[in-house]
Design goal:
The protein has one domain. About 75% of the residues lie in helices and about 0% in strands. It has twelve helices and no strands. It is globular, with a radius of gyration of 19 Å. It is found in: Cell membrane; Membrane. One of its GO terms (cellular component) is ATP-binding cassette (ABC) transporter complex.
Length: about 260
């Protein structure tokens, strides 16, 4: 089989698995709606109920919205992890692996469907941010670049979640693994500026990969808290995570039930 034919076969298998995951959306619309509504609730809560951020110059909503977009890309992995573990325990993945299918197509389909939901969540959250008074000032190209960085970060987080789901193996263990995501989210500059934190904590926050994405996105949007030069880090960090966890996930998937 030629390289072109192999690639075409892999893409076809991956698209088949993506359609399988999208079909689940039609049967589980509440889960999709909750996944989209949860970050909106957080945005409104921090923007109005808690209100304001210490050490943030300018309008807080302009600082908060990019951070909430990055936070949304880090959170929400529980649905992915539960779906993978349920397929494992119900024997679905064993049946799929017995078919003449490209190794890893099941996982690619799963990640592709989740990326579509992530894009939907970004669209809704940006729309709500506009309604609350947030504005992007960086121009169309910079806007698309910021969205691209957010989706790249999400893609890396998804493959971390897929790998950890196969490590956990059971849906009841997902919650324990999901707790690992929370430090990444809240030990960041998504909600508050590191300048208002103790020195050691501010250093940890600034080195957080999600902080790099949030800072780069703020810069591209022209919002407070953005710093020039963070775009490269917002690209390198997710690519490094992908380079580590993508092959780990595919390798572990290949070894299942051997």
């Amino acid at each position: 089989m030629t390289a072109l034919a192999t690639t075409a076969h892999a893409l076809t298998d991956s698209w088949t698995m993506t359609r399988r995951e999208l079909a689940h959306w039609a049967r589980q619309p509440v889960q999709v709606a909750v996944g989209v509504a949860f970050p909106v609730m957080l945005l409104v809560m921090f923007g109005y109920l808690i209100g304001g951020g210490r050490a943030v110059t300018g309008d807080y909503i302009d600082y908060l919205l990019p951070g909430m977009l990055a936070l949304t890309m880090a959170f929400g992995l529980e649905g992915t992890m539960i779906a993978v573990t349920e397929d494992l325990n119900k024997g679905v993945i064993d049946r799929l692996r017995s078919m003449p299918m490209t190794n890893g197509a099941v996982l690619v389909g799963r990640s592709a469907a989740d990326m579509l939901q992530s894009a939907l969540a970004l669209t809704v959250l940006i729309g709500v941010g506009l309604a609350l008074g947030w504005r992007a000032h960086g121009g169309p190209v910079a806007f698309l670049g910021a969205v691209g960085l957010l989706l790249l970060f999400r893609f890396a987080m998804l493959w971390i979640g897929i790998h950890l789901a196969m490590v956990a193996g059971k849906p009841e263990l997902v919650q324990a693994v999901q707790i690992l995501v929370w430090p990444v989210g809240f030990l960041s500059n998504a909600i508050a500026a590191p300048e208002g934190m103790p020195g050691w904590l501010g250093t940890v926050v600034q080195w957080n990969p999600m902080s790099q994405t949030a800072t780069a996105v703020r810069d591209l949007f022209g919002n407070p808290g953005g710093e020039t030069g963070h775009v490269w880090a917002a690209v390198v960090w997710p690519l490094a995570l992908l380079a580590l966890f993508f092959p780990l996930a595919v390798r572990r998937f290949a070894r299942l039930s051997r």
